[in-house]
Amino acid sequence: MSDKFDFNLNLRNLFSNTPRNFSDTEILYKNKRKTTYSKFFQKVNGLASGLSEIGVKQGDTVAVIDWDTDKYMEAYYAVPMMGAILHTVNIRYPPELIYYTMNHAEDKYVIVRDEFVPILEKNRQLFDFIKGWVVYSDDSETVSTSLGPNYQYNDIVKNEKYDFPDLDENTVATIFYTSGTTGLPKGVTFTHKNLFMHTLALANGINFAPINVGRTDNFLILVPMFHVHSWGIPYMALMNGNRYVLPGKYDVGTILELVKNENIKFSAMVPSILYMILSSPNLEEYREHLKGWKVVIGGAALPRGLALKAKSFGITTIGAYGLSETAPLLTIAIYNDALKKADEETKFNYSITTGIPVPMVNLRVIDKDMKDVPADGKSIGEIVVHSPWLTSGYFKDPQKTEELWRGGWLHTGDLAVIHQNGYISIVDREKDAVKSGGEFIPSLVLENAISELKGVGEVAVIGKPHEKWGERPVAFIVRSEPIKDGDVYDHLNKFMDVGRIQKWWIPDEIVFIDSMPKTSTGKADKKELRKLLK
Ligand code: AMP
Fold first, then answer.
1. Which end of the chain has fewer CB atoms at under 10 Å, N or C?
2. How many A from CA of 197 to the centre of ligand 1?
3. Chain-wide mean pLDDT for the chain?
4. Mind listing the pLDDT tens digit for each residue in 375-425?
5. Angle at 126 between CA 120 and CA 127, to 5 degrees
6. Top mutation candidate among 269, 270, 323 for ligand 1, by most atoms within 8 Å of CB
7. Domain CATH number, residue 515
8. CA of 328 to the centre of ligand 1 (A)
9. Which of 359, 384, 414 is a domain's end point?
10. Containing structural domain, residue 338
11. What does the DSSP 8-state code read for residue 355?
12. Is there an atom of ligand 1 within 6 Å of 321 CB?
């Protein structure tokens, strides 16, 4: 530290008062384990001491392979605060990609839950770069494994205080890999300062109507801890003192029971998880407990049909937007001043858009020459951003980093319009855009319209090559009730009549499928859908 007035924006300094201020606030792992913030931070100290004793040094990368558990949460704090780098491994990847990313990230130590041990053992010879495996189980004291050298989690955690260093704020804290929908996954890293600033902005962003998340709201976050730090919510919650419930492996029955028994008031998830929850056959039994649940939906657009269904159960949903590369939060669909006098219907319509930028996010929607498109709700451009928590680039990939940051702005690859009142609506991803007759068909607008038809469970629109028009849209639908393609066309014609969609956007084909193919982060996998085109 160069000067007495300098203050490092690192995780140690962000959480210095948390264990004392919220000493009795609980952290739960399903109905299996329960602790308080003060005991949790003792464990964080104990884990850092244990990791240091087995050889973890500043700058080493420590991987975690687990569902969303209290042990994972301990690593979220202990690993970066000791100056090591936390690699949150995507456990939804096939084994080859798990190996690829661990090798690429240069992992040195691994904390792993027993059920993932067998796949690692099978490919033991590939992991000769790992210096130590820390294994644990929910159900037994010890885990026997042929991975080596190995240590039992409970044995290494010491009952002592760790002297966390005052790290330079630009020290790398975390690494994880993008979903890899095109080509190999890319590694993104985040520094302590990135996480510090993101935590502050997120706490601010969810603190407004219509969700007004506050200190007394119990949290159940359904964004995997391996993906973009669970949207940064584990850090934000412990800064603000929220009771925090960890669900383990996602299972709708467990989720609904936790919502009921733990009086959950705030959650975040991708739309497909909310869809699964709202499709539960015994949802009615939980009606009274779902009332007042506030849910942020991100990672993909919030379909209007899904938001309406949630509303019918008294659940408030709002949209939010971000990317792996942006840590992730960029925008959230809270109400701004322009909506103060708006009627409820208008407010609802804006609450399911992409939203408005949170503090410190400098966001533009630009044309090909990097000029801002007019804020008229019609002109489409690419979202580019600047903020204090964006990744500086892809790990060991200078060429892709340069593309990402061309012109000095982080390019999201998302196409959007900006409305006069400041709200943004993403209409497509550049990669997924349907181009027909030289014109662009916004697939997300079309999906949104189709989602409102009763009987549509999930929907995704993609472009099919067409001799005359270049591409024509095809809609893939998972039905929740028996409907026919004629119903979809009748429904879309009504939208056309009121000008919500244009005639030539109406899909040439409607394909009913039994289930929607999903990416490792639970979004509709358009690459897989393209393979289904005849
Ligand atoms: P990932 O990096 O896997 O989290 O994916 C980020 C991408 O998800 C973005 O570039 C968008 O294309 C998409 N996305 C995230 N949030 C939204 C949203 N609210 N509306 C539409 N697309 C979204």
1. C
2. 21
3. 96
4. 999 999 999 999 999 999 999 999 999 999 999 999 999 999 999 999 999
5. 65
6. 323
7. 3.30.300.30
8. 9
9. 359
10. 191-359
11. B
12. yes
